[in-house]
Amino acid sequence: MSDPLERLAQHAHESHVVVAGGGIAGLVAALECAKVGMRVTVLEASDAFGGVVRSAEVGGLTLDVGAESFATRGGIVRALLAELGLDDQVVRPNPAGAWVAGVPGIGAAPLPKGGVLGIPDNPWAPDVRRVIGWAGVWRAYLDRVRPPLTIGHQHSLGTLVRSRMGARVLDRLVAPVTSGVYSARPEDIDVDLAAPGLNAALTRTGSLSGAVAELRAARATTAPVDAPASDVPVVDGPAPRTPAPGGAVEGIVGGMSRLVDALVARLTDLGVEVRTGAPVRGLTRTDGGWEVATDGEPLRADAVIVALPEGAARELLAPVVDGLDRAEPVSPVVEVVTLVVDAPALDSAPRGTGVLTVPGSHVAKALTHSTAKWDWVRDATDPGIHVVRVSFGAQGEEPASAPLDDEAAGALALSEAAALLGVALPPSTLVASHRVRYVQSQPGAAIGRAAQAAAARGAVRAVPGLGATGAWLSGTGLAQVIPDARDEADRVRSATLWRRR
Fold first, then answer.
1. From CA 444, how far away is CA 264, in angstroms rounded?
2. CA–CA gap between residue 334 and residue 27 (Å, rounded)
3. Is 272 helix (H, G, I), strand (E, B) or coil?
4. Is-contact 69 78, C-beta < 8 A?
5. 442 contacts: CB under 8 Å, gap ≥ 6
6. How do beta strands 354-357 and 366-369 pair?
7. pLDDT 10s per residue in the chain (501 long)?
8. Bridge-partner residues for 173, per DSSP?
9. How far apart are CA 63 and CA 435, in angstroms?
10. How many CB atoms lie within 10 A of CB 319?
11. Which uninterrupted H or E stretch holds 209?
12. CA–CA distance, 13 with 11 (Å, rounded to integer)
């Protein structure tokens, strides 16, 4: 065989890549390798592919019980859906917006529209004043007369907001958003990662509210920026987090698990071996590549891509990667309870598409009224039947539902839903419930997180024939996970093919 291209094609067919982990990152990485003719095996430890993108039957309905949407930024996810033939199934959520509950003195109110990460661009706006009160408005107004930072800038979102606009803006507007979007306190969020350009705009405009207005104006032609879009599986405002109120997100008719099904089908068509119930027990370097230990016969591979959650990934990689610590940062634990209720009182969507909570005011962190948010969910239900998702838990906070059995967790979620939605939901209204537990990746916008991820990635990339991808390295959300998985797969496959020439 003398043709260089024919030799390269033959090398591709002879090269074997094992992907450890069958979440979205692993499936996308496998697809990128399979596209060029490489032999690929995907090993998933659980009984289902998709990771935090999953569905379940609840009360006779097939519903998302994990991530329910994706961020539209960059068109990354939409392009993959088009490649898989699902582009015509993409839908947008109801733009009605969300509420915030647990506000002292008033209980609940619509979440103000004009802001970034909950920071208002105009504290005098009536919807802002309703939440923070006149005292909060006047305190926030001091932001306009305080001098901006001219040397350096503030990294902590919580510290920045508290110093510029006061505790009421921080506690009643910003904290509900960061808790819902990032499962984290504002103090732990890096401004430059969560809201790029905000610090620089503060210096230019002289105030934080002016900086927010400038960012909103600059981005108005691309996407709404009332809050960052996310798709981790939590609730309205996934992840695992759901879209933030006002964030630019879309979903799929029938649920996000259709993306998983389409990826698995495409991989099967390309001859990829996909296995569930197949944990990877260990990796060993060999002269020709890798030996992958499983519960059955070990697999020989020219390259391995690890696409596991952080704890499992570090445990698997540490023995073969110098300098990689087995220990993972403490990650948020979230439980999502999906309820199907017979409650005609919810037909009017009394609190928009969902509710965020002021931290400490309720045991639930957030709620999504799925029937109000997604037309496809509403169309799948009978009159008066509603789907509500309630999430519990955040950074450093064990979910209140955690010590309960499934029945008791459903009852707690129903009680919280009634409180957050402002309607009576007695036990008789509950048709069915479903609970799922997630250990989320540390938010990519957490202070110091980017450096941790970069160090881990650099250590992995120093080992020939080894790659790693997933939310713990890329940041959460499909719009970040998918391109990262593609880039890492391209790096690994290129090195593998050219090394073998």
1. 27
2. 24
3. coil
4. no
5. 310, 329, 331, 332, 449, 452, 472
6. antiparallel
7. 457 667 667 766 788 999 999 999 999 999 999 999 999 999 999 999 999 999 999 999 999 999 999 999 889 999 999 999 999 999 999 998 899 999 999 999 999 988 899 999 999 999 999 999 999 999 999 999 887 665 457 789 999 999 999 999 999 999 999 988 788 899 999 998 888 899 889 989 999 999 999 998 887 644 333 333 333 334 333 332 333 333 489 999 999 999 999 999 999 999 999 999 999 999 999 988 999 999 999 999 999 999 999 999 999 999 999 989 877 677 788 999 999 999 999 999 999 999 999 999 999 999 999 999 999 999 999 999 999 999 999 877 899 999 999 999 999 999 999 999 999 999 999 999 999 998 877 777 888 888 889 999 999 999 999 999 999 999 889 999 999 999 999 999 999 987 654
8. none
9. 12
10. 12
11. helix 208-219
12. 5
Name the token pair of 469: 């991808």
Q: Give the span between the Cα atoms of 117 and 382, in whole angstroms.
A: 36
Q: How many residues does the chain have?
A: 501
The residue type at 90: V
Q: DSSP letters of 34-67?
A: HHTT-EEEEE-SSSSSBTT--EEEETTEEEESS-
